[in-house]
C-alpha cells in the first residue's frame, strides 16, 4: 500500500445536514484525503480516539504525517492490559505522539465502594458507562469532531458504519476514515510501514479492550467475539447512538 496521491484539500460544509454527502464523496477516495481535509478544516478542534487497536495505529501514522500536532487520546479505564500500555509507549517513541489520557476520575476502589466488587462481571453496561462513556462525553464537549478506527468488517453491528456522520450522543462530527478497509488492508499497511502492534494480537486476541472483558477468539469467530464473551453486549457504548443506547 504505497502513499496515495492526494488532491488539493477541498473546503466542505461540515454541518450536520451535509455530512451524508461528504461521506458519499469520500467513499472511493483514500482515507488520507478525508483525514487531511478534516484536519485542515477542524484544526485544534478535532481529536483522534484510540484504544491502541490496529486501525488506530494506522490512523496515528497517517495523522502524524498530515498534522502531527493533532491530539490523540485514549480512555484510561485502569483495567487495560500491560501489553497495551507497552504499545502506547512504543508508539510514542516511534511516531512522536504525546497521548492524552482521559480518565473517569473514579478510582477502582471508589467504584467498589459505590457498586461492589467486579462491576464488569455483573453489570458491564454500567461499568463501561462510568469508565468510558461519561469520560468520553465530557472530553468531547469542547471538540467539533473526533476520529475513530471503526471498520465495517469488524462485526455485524458495525457493518453500516459511515465514513462521516453526526454523533448525536456526543454532539459533534464523527469520522471513521477506515470504515471501508478490511482487516487485511490494515495489516498490509502496518507491515509496509513497519508499525508496531499489540503483542496480544499474536496470542489470539484480534480485539483488545479491558482485561476482565477480553478473551482470545477461536478460528472463524468475528474479530470482536472475545469482547464481553457470555454477554449479549458487543459494544462498550461509546459508539452507540441515543436510540440504540436506550434500547441497550
Ligand atoms: Fe468495565 Fe469491561 Fe467496560 Fe472495561 S470493558 S469499562 S472493565 S465493563
Description of the structure:
This protein has a single domain, classed as Rossmann fold. Helices cover 37% and strands 10% of the residues. The chain has a 6-stranded mixed β-sheet with strand order 3-2-1-4-6-5. A hairpin with a 4-residue loop joins strand 5 and strand 6. Helix 3 crosses helix 8. The longest helix is centred in the middle third of the chain and has 17 residues. The protein is globular, with a radius of gyration of 18 Å. The C terminus is likely disordered. The structure holds iron/sulfur cluster (SF4). Iron/sulfur cluster binds next to helix 7.
Concise overview:
With 248 residues, the protein is an alpha/beta fold. It has helices at 19-26, 31-42, 54-66, 82-95, 108-115, 119-122, 124-140, 183-192, 242-247, and strands at residues 46-49, 71-76, 100-103, 145-147, 164-167, 172-175.
What order do the helices and strands come in, and which of them pair?
Layout (H helix, E strand, L loop, with lengths): L18 H8 L4 H12 L3 E4 L4 H13 L4 E6 L5 H14 L4 E4 L4 H8 L3 H4 L1 H17 L4 E3 L16 E4 L4 E4 L7 H10 L49 H6 L1
Parallel strand pairs: 1-2, 1-4, 2-3, 4-6
Antiparallel strand pairs: 5-6
The structure holds iron/sulfur cluster (SF4).
